[in-house]
Design a protein that fits this description.
Elements (H helix, E strand, L loop, with lengths): L1 E4 L6 H8 L3 H8 L12 E4 L4 E4 L6 H8 L3 H7 L13 E4 L5 E9 L8 H10 L5 E4 L2 E3 L5 E2 L6 H7 L3 E7 L1 E2 L2 E2 L1 H9 L1 H18 L1 E7 L8 H17 L3 E6 L17 H7 L2 E4 L17 H14 L5 E6 L2 E5 L10 E3 L1 H10 L5 E3 L4 E7 L5 E5 L3 H14 L3 E5 L6 H10 E3 L4
Parallel strand pairs: 5-6, 5-21, 5-22, 6-9, 7-9, 9-12, 12-13, 13-14, 14-15, 15-21
Antiparallel strand pairs: 1-2, 3-4, 7-8, 10-11, 16-17, 16-20, 18-19, 19-20
Length: 429
């Protein structure tokens, strides 16, 4: 597939003619209204066989071949150029369809309150075939070790029908926030632990969960070893029941990183104890913080590099957001929170306010500004085909186990197109 960035004066018809396909094919692939105007800077996925690549400063046949996993000889032959011929900036090369690699894909799905909207259930049905795991979030633990389930609706049936393994996310959320006190109780009280594990096993058998996923956050640093011992105990018991065990890890870049979100998460121990981990590589740009990319590629890569120094690549799922944020400016700490939006909604906002979409090459993320009807200035950062392909390239480069999405229900058709174009998603059932 080809990623094309809309330029001033482009129309869907002109772009379709350029690639020799129909306007309808592009509109369908990107889930856009063909009657609406395109947004300058908008990335489109063009459903063609192979792609064309424009040579950038510093490129060579070798570096391009490395990026697209094709030999220098084959790349030169396909494009009818000499292997030793220097490449000109702006030169166009044809890149044939790449061989797909196998990965694991998970997606969390989070109901609003105690209800599941029809749109959320529809998203699960639409994308389940592209997933290995589906994780209805969250099961909550109380201070006695009892579990409270989220609404499951038809998620177990959707998983069965699509060969998807249900993941059971368990958290120390209490009154809407991660609780250090609750986490400490779970990790240090053996009676609470035993009751919790009993209920996990009973629930997993009743519902049909295949993976038990511990997402304990904001834990006291002094409970780091307690968490490791709990995971050893839980994994031993749950493996006896034929259940996998996974954990969610805060995005660390060193073993000594300080802060309540990080210190109790021991990458090395988790890598040794559980079956796989999810790196929560998002929320650099977050609703209560200053405007910036949610998952800039540089910091994401730094976390992956640290993780690989502590555990094997085949135990790592890269966390990936399916959303962006719309901040009202000026940003003030403690002020108005940014609004979460889907990538499709971001493009619609840019169209409504006639704003060009910009792209930060360092963060590998799109953004734009606009002024609303009340005169308020806004800054929007989101995901598009270019930003998600940067994460896919990282997964392939580092040979990671796969990807984990937070969260279903936010429209981002380009992600799913590129996922199935570049990977075979494994099924465990």
């Amino acid at each position: 597939m080809q990623i094309y960035v809309v330029k001033q004066g482009d129309s869907l018809y002109q772009i379709a003619n350029q690639f020799g396909i129909s306007s309808e094919a592009i509109a369908t692939a990107n889930e856009i209204n063909p009657e609406q105007s395109l947004v300058v800077g908008q990335a489109l996925v063009i459903p063609t066989y192979g792609r064309f690549y424009t040579v950038q400063p510093g490129d060579s046949l070798y570096t391009i071949g490395q990026r697209f996993q094709i030999s220098v000889a084959e790349l030169a032959s396909i494009n009818q150029i000499n292997v030793y011929q220097p490449l000109s900036i702006g030169m166009t090369l044809y890149i044939p369809e790449q061989a797909k690699t196998d990965i694991v894909a998970n997606a969390y799905i989070e109901p609003t309150g105690n209800t599941v909207s029809p749109a959320l259930e529809s998203a699960a049905r639409k994308h389940a075939e592209k997933l290995t795991y589906l994780a209805p979030s969250f099961y909550r633990v109380d201070r006695e070790g009892n579990l409270t389930a989220p609404p499951l609706n038809d998620f177990p049936a959707i998983a069965r029908e699509n060969g998807v393994t249900l993941m059971m996310p368990i958290t120390n959320l209490e009154e809407g926030a991660f609780s250090a006190d609750l986490g400490q109780i779970i990790l240090t009280n053996e009676t609470v632990q035993n009751r919790l594990l009993d209920q996990i096993i009973a629930t997993a058998k009743e519902v049909g969960f295949g993976d038990i996923h511990f997402d304990f956050e904001f834990l006291p640093p002094e409970n780091r070893e307690d968490y490791n011992r709990f995971l050893e105990k839980a994994t031993e018991r749950l493996h006896q029941e034929g259940l996998q065990v996974s954990t969610a890890l805060a995005p660390k870049t060193s073993a000594t990183q300080e802060g309540m979100w990080y210190e109790a998460h021991d990458y090395k121990a988790h890598g040794e104890i559980v079956d796989f981990v999810v790196l929560m590589t998002y929320e650099w740009g977050y609703s209560g913080g200053p405007p910036m990319a949610v998952s800039p590629i540089g910091p994401v890569r730094d976390v992956v590099n640290y993780a690989l120094s502590e555990m094997p690549a085949n135990k790592i799922l890269l966390g990936q957001n399916l959303y962006g944020y719309d901040w009202t400016l000026p940003y003030e700490p403690g002020g108005e929170y940014a609004r979460a939006i889907s990538p499709q909604r971001a493009i619609q906002i840019a169209r409504d306010y006639q704003q060009a979409i910009l792209f930060d090459e360092r963060a590998m993320a799109p953004y734009f500004f606009y002024t609303d009807e009340d005169g308020n200035r806004h800054e929007v950062w989101f995901e598009d085909a270019r930003s998600i392909e940067a994460k896919f390239d990282l997964i392939k480069e580092k040979q990671l186990l796969g990807i984990s999405y937070w969260k279903l229900g936010l429209s981002f058709p380009q992600n799913w197109l590129l996922l199935t174009d570049q990977f075979y998603v494994q099924k465990l059932r």
